[in-house]
Structure formats: structure tokens, C-alpha cells
Automatic annotation (TrEMBL):
Alphabetical UniProt keywords: Cytoplasm, Methyltransferase, rRNA processing, S-adenosyl-L-methionine, Transferase
Record's protein name: Ribosomal RNA large subunit methyltransferase F
Annotated CDD domains: AdoMet_MTases
Origin organism lineage: Bacteria, Pseudomonadati, Pseudomonadota, Gammaproteobacteria, Pseudomonadales
Family under the similarity heading: Belongs to the methyltransferase superfamily. METTL16/RlmF family.
GO terms assigned for molecular function: 23S rRNA (adenine(1618)-N(6))-methyltransferase activity
EC numbers on record: 2.1.1.181
Extent of Basic and acidic residues compositional bias: 17-26
Amino acid sequence: MPKPPKRPAKPQPLRDPAAKKPDLLHPRNRHQGRYDFPALIAASPELGEYMITNPYGKPSIDFANPQAVRVFNRALLKAQYGIAHWEIPADFLCPPIPGRADYVHYLADLLAEDNAGSVPRGPAVRLLDIGVGANCIYPLIGHRDYGWHFLGADIEPAALASARNIVMANPGLAEAIELRQQAEPKHIFHGLLHSDERFHASLCNPPFHASPEEASAGSKRKWKNLGKLDPSRKLPVLNFGGQSNELWCEGGEIAFLRRMARESTDVAQQVLWFSSLVSKAGNLDDFRRALKQAGALLVRTVDMAQGQKQSRFVAWTFHDAEARGAWYR
């Protein structure tokens, strides 16, 4: 008996990159709902040069244009955070700001658990940004939203120079954000911190590819998800930019995470909570095993979502509940 013909796959609706589901972002995230392009253009007129009508008939920018995304981010930071001057060199990673903000806010919730349920605020709260990058995004958001002070570390001198230019160009940031080069590229924490420094938490957006070829393939998948607004034009290799140290490392994301787990033991008494984004859900079990081997007392996986994108970060500590509470006293 012949098999019945397969039903054609139900077409999936296209996703508008300018539309976000407000219930999926953290409640304190400033980027709820659709982007208010008229307000953004009023604050940053240059953004008007990059406006289009997208395939959904809505005003937007071409999210497949790296320069448009840089100008858009500059407008967001100015309108939402009062960062009047933000510029990064071409080809450096241009981050999705709402998603980066979610990481900061959920990390703040984690810190609140050890502080009688209250999010700790102000300059006494210090955070360590591993791989601060040219964009300096986590210190900018964390300082503007919570008044935290930051140490941003990177192995790339050009990235630190860019971050330093951003800090120096915006009044009040130099007192809150310190930048430091990790002089040993093969290490993460080793040799980075002074013996008397203490941090409430560390954050990290690790390189998630194992090679330039893998990074290029990942970028092609992003093109497919975004949709090619003009198939006739030549598309850049990496749509959101990114240098080698930002996008790939030997062994890929899981090798970096394992190294981070091992090295965190060296500064276990100087950092209350370590944390890192984990791009690939398939790496979670391996990473948790590495943290158990390192002796972490508590490991937390915090899920996040922006629109249809699922993400998460893993946090771990070597301090018991009593020691964590004493950190704030």
C-alpha cells in the first residue's frame, strides 16, 4: 500500500528584528517593546540615514549592515543611558544591547539573593568584566543602571584603547571604570588581579567558535535568520563584526569555559560570584562537570530570552551562604 504523501511543512512566520516581546526581557531592562525610532532619531539624527521599511512594512534599520548597527547602538546608548560618545573601530564586535542588558539585570538579581533580597547598588559594588572588548558595554550598562564600579580586562590592546576612548569621552565614567590588559593571552584570571582586590561578580562573553571558518558559518546562519533585505548586494563575512579573540579561540567555547573554571580557583577568595554566558546549550553539562571538579560550592544556570533567541549564563561561587552574606557587611 503506497504511503500517503507528506504534508508540506507549515511556513514559519518571519521575525521582525525591530520587534521584541516585552514579557521576555528582564522587567528592569530599558529596552521593552518596539524600538521608538522617531525618539532615537531625535536624539541621534545620523540614525535617520540608515532607516528602511522592512519586509513587515515597519520602520527599521538594516540589521545586516554593520555600520547601521553601530549607529543604532550609539543612538540607543545615548537615548537610554546618556552615553553621548560611543564609537568602536570597524570590524570589532557590535553587541546586541538588550541582550547584554538582560545579563546585567539577572546577575543583579543573583547578587540580591545574598543581600537580603535587595539589589546592591553604588560604587562599593565592584564587578570584573573578562573580555571587556572595544565596546565596553557591560560597564556602561552596569554603571548607569546600578552605579557599580568595574574593572574591564582584555588581552587585545586595540580593544582596550577603544574602550578607554569611550570612558574618557563621557564625563563621570573614568572614576567608575578601570581598564587593564591581561598580559598573558593564554590565561584568564592568572596574573590579572592585585592581591587586595575583591569583586562581587565577574561577567564574560566568551569566544564561542573554534576557528575562523566556524565563525563564518555561524554568520551565514545569522543572515538566514535575519533575512537578506537585498539579495543583490555583497554581504560582509561577519555581520556584527568581531576580531579573532572576540569570536574564536583554540578549542572553541567549551575549552575557554573549562579554562575559566580551572583558573577561577586561583582567585576564589577575591570574587563572590563568577559568571559567563554559554552560547551553546550543549556545552552546559560539560561546563558544570568542570566546575564541580574545580570545587565550586554552588552552580546556577540562569535562562534568558530576547524574542525568539534563547540564551543563558552560568554562575558559580566558592563561598557558602554565610560567607556570601558577610560579603555585604
